[in-house]
Specification:
five-stranded mixed beta sheet; 2 domains; alpha+beta; 228 residues
């Protein structure tokens, strides 16, 4: 091992260490003992340590700003949806407006509100479910791949028959059906239904918010007219 090293070599080693090279890599590259490297580099902050500290600083200082910006972006988006639905309610295209109004009111009354990120409608009445999905398709441009269906059945139902029934009725392929939920307590049932309860879901938070804004704007418009 050399007894003395040039200053230029030391500077090169320090530079590479700051860039993140490990003691093992430096030792092999320059044929320098790790003990010597420790002596040279004991006060050099390792890049990974800098990265970790930078991340801590980012979490502490920058991340809240990002969350605030995302929140404001969402508020702006909701204002845009509300403005668009108000305009839609007030325009003169009566056929389109009537369909959207009926859809919105149907969802407001019967739609599932538990999940925040999806438009979900559940009912045992096939005609009502068919009406909902027809109005939805006629009122908005949809990505059919976003539909999901789940049915709730009792032990007196035939699963294959029920799935086929709802698939044909709604025009949604069986590949987009989820696992069937089997309800307990059949002996307490006083009225049997044809094919269980059908949950139709469309994975779009934006569409759900638009439908709900439409419903509330229609309600506001009608109640204002009746109080004049």
């Amino acid at each position: 091992m050399k007894s003395a090293w040039s200053e230029s070599l030391k500077e090169e080693v320090i530079k590479l260490r700051k860039e993140g090279l490990s003691y093992g890599v430096l030792s092999k590259k320059f044929k320098i003992a790790k003990s010597t490297l420790h002596y040279w580099l004991s006060e050099i902050e390792y890049k990974k340590e800098k990265t970790a500290q930078s991340r801590k600083n980012w979490i502490k200082n920058i991340q809240p700003l990002g969350a605030l910006a995302n929140h404001q972006k969402r508020l702006d988006k909701l204002k845009g949806i509300e403005k668009r639905t108000v305009k839609e309610v007030n325009k003169n295209n009566h056929i389109t407006k009537a369909k959207k109004a009926l859809l919105a009111m149907l969802y407001w009354a019967e739609g599932a509100k538990g999940r925040k990120d999806i438009l979900s409608f559940a009912n045992t009445d096939p005609q009502l479910a068919k009406l909902f999905i027809c109005l939805l398709r006629e009122s908005y441009f949809l990505d059919e791949r976003k539909f999901r269906v789940r049915i709730h059945l009792h032990d007196y139902h035939d699963e294959n028959e029920a799935k086929t029934f709802w698939s044909n009725l709604l025009g949604i392929p069986l590949s987009q059906f989820g696992k069937t939920y089997w309800k307990k307590g059949t002996n307490k049932i006083y009225r049997r239904n044809k094919a269980g309860i059908c949950f139709v879901r469309y994975n779009s938070l934006a569409l759900k918010e638009e439908v709900m804004f439409y419903a509330r704007n229609v309600a506001d418009s009608l109640t204002q007219e009746t109080t004049k």
